[in-house]
Amino acid sequence: MIDRLPPLALYVHVPWCVRKCPYCDFNSHGVGRGADLPEEEYLAALIDDLDADLSLAAGREIVSVFIGGGTPSLMAPAFYRRLLEALAARLPLASDIEITLEANPGTLERGRFAGYREAGINRLSLGVQSFQDDQLAALGRIHGGADAEAAIEEARDAGFDNLNIDLMHGLPGQTVELALSDLDRALTFSPEHLSWYQLTLEPNTEFHSRPPTLPEEEVLWDIQDIGHERLEAAGLGRYEISAYARPGRRARHNLNYWRFGDYLGIGAGAHGKLSTWTDNGLAIERRWKARQPEAYLRRRRDPRGFVAGRATVEPDELPLEFAMNALRLVDGVSLATWRAHTGYTPEVMASRLAQAREKGLLVEDPGRLQASPRGLLFLNELLALISEADT
């Protein structure tokens, strides 16, 4: 039984980027280089959006802030200084709050990182994806390998001591050697965190409609196996399907998602999850904001406000909702935590747990739901097995 509200985080979405990448299914809108973005209007809208959601927070402490996109580094440091000042004036912030900004190497002007650090950003996530120029071109990226290295060095010079590098593998035409070369180059910068994920062809993307030739499955297995060993040997422990971190440097904001925490979402297309107490116990609502940037900005003058939709998470949806997040974690969750969040006891799912263990998808631990290495690779199969009660 849940006896307290979960931690509360804040997600801020900046929807613009220089060019939409062919693999990207996020709410991002290419504007070209040198575009005159409506910074003042968007900042005002974000603050209005936050004000409209304050009653949902009810004075709860904000444990982390994540500014994603799109490409948030298109906005000037002063934009974030003013945004964070507005947040601090409205809600209590944890004394050790983690504030992450996503940045792309190809959108940076010299000296911006120092400005972001001074504005209050204390964690940087760099969308490197690869250090190979031809691979970056195949991905539609606007930066080269030298740009990525220069951005990392500038981040360090600016005082960022909590740095995530985003890398992709399984890229068009990529060999095991090329994938490991990317990892090795990233590790020379001793990042505190590394997100290392396989390219997938998502619906509603250019790559989905015109798929490139990706490596054979055996090559993908070799990349994952050897790469995992190399990251672990470098002191970056795997704690989620595609996330590796040094001790004490796991991404708090993402952990809050995976542990089924709450979060406010402000900005065009931002999603939020909020828990509240009702006479019937804990109620969970998901809500999302107007997706198109122009429509979102118009909502400032619309009596409907910024919310484009909302949905209550029904009790029978909780097992899958919870499992989709928690079982991404390498450590999984205790059965007591599973029961508290879903209402399912081990008894009502005994045969399903047995099936999952027989298939090698779960670790043999009677007190935990923990995906095995195979289970992490075939997570959808595991989710289908354990997210329903026995009938």
UniProtKB/TrEMBL annotation:
Any Gene Ontology biological process: porphyrin-containing compound biosynthetic process
Cross-referenced InterPro entries: Aldolase_TIM, Coproporphyrinogen-III_oxidase, Elp3/MiaA/NifB-like_rSAM, HemN_C, HemW-like, rSAM, rSAM_sf
Cofactor or coenzyme needed: [4Fe-4S] cluster
Ranges of residues in domain Radical SAM core: 2-236
SUPFAM superfamilies associated with the record: Radical SAM enzymes
SMART domains per UniProt: Elp3
Cellular compartment(s): Cytoplasm
Alphabetized UniProt keyword annotations: 4Fe-4S, Chaperone, Cytoplasm, Heme, Iron, Iron-sulfur, Metal-binding, S-adenosyl-L-methionine
One Gene Ontology term, aspect cellular component: cytoplasm
One MF term in the entry's GO annotations: metal ion binding
Chief location of this protein within or outside the cell: cytoplasm
Record PANTHER family: COPROPORPHYRINIGEN III OXIDASE, RADICAL S-ADENOSYL METHIONINE DOMAIN-CONTAINING PROTEIN 1, MITOCHONDRIAL
NCBIfam families: hemN_rel
Family named by the database record: Belongs to the anaerobic coproporphyrinogen-III oxidase family. HemW subfamily.
Functional description taken from the UniProt entry: Probably acts as a heme chaperone, transferring heme to an unknown acceptor. Binds one molecule of heme per monomer, possibly covalently. Binds 1 [4Fe-4S] cluster. The cluster is coordinated with 3 cysteines and an exchangeable S-adenosyl-L-methionine.
Protein name: Heme chaperone HemW
Organism: Halomonas caseinilytica
